Amino acid sequence: GAGVSQSPSNKVTEKGKDVELRCDPISGHTALYWYRQRLGQGLEFLIYFQGNSAPDKSGLPSDRFSAERTGESVSTLTIQRTQQEDSAVYLCASTEVIGEAFFGQGTRLTVV
Amino acid sequence: AQTVTQSQPEMSVQEAETVTLSCTYDTSESDYYLFWYKQPPSRQMILVIRQEAYKQQNATENRFSVNFQKAAKSFSLKISDSQLGDAAMYFCACQDSNYQLIWGAGTKLIIKP
Q: How far is B7 from chain A (nearest CA, A)?
């Protein structure tokens, strides 16, 4: 595709349910990032994939959060047993090995 | 560890005036990239300007320019002739040979008409 695509754009879920967020990066981009952004705040790093290297998971806030990426394709971020504090915008970005990051529009997650 | 610091949580400027947003960073590398991104209320992150550390000349993109001071590890963004559409959050980022982007906390820019 022409840009980074994230789905869904909005998700409302009940506390305790699992959610899966999807990111389609730009074709050929080896690096992929997931960030969490609370209202009016900065980017909170979650996880970083770079090619076939082991992902940097150091930003995942708890073991309820996990992410997968197969090769240089789609990535999914899964949040299990969602809590109200998980409510935020989740942003995905992809880059070539080094250079400009291209962002998706984000998924706004609301846990009620 | 690599860090990026934006010391101004919020800045305001009169329309048509000039404003400078500050950014300092810390890296042990000699070669790296620096970026300024803009995030308007639509939340879409947009690249404003980039600077390669090996280039001494400051990057410029129309009304946007940087003051890159490598020895001081400073990378400020100057916006000239501010327009209402410049109102947004501005994020500074650094990328070195580890490749991972490190972000500042952001500066909210308010444009007063």
A: 13
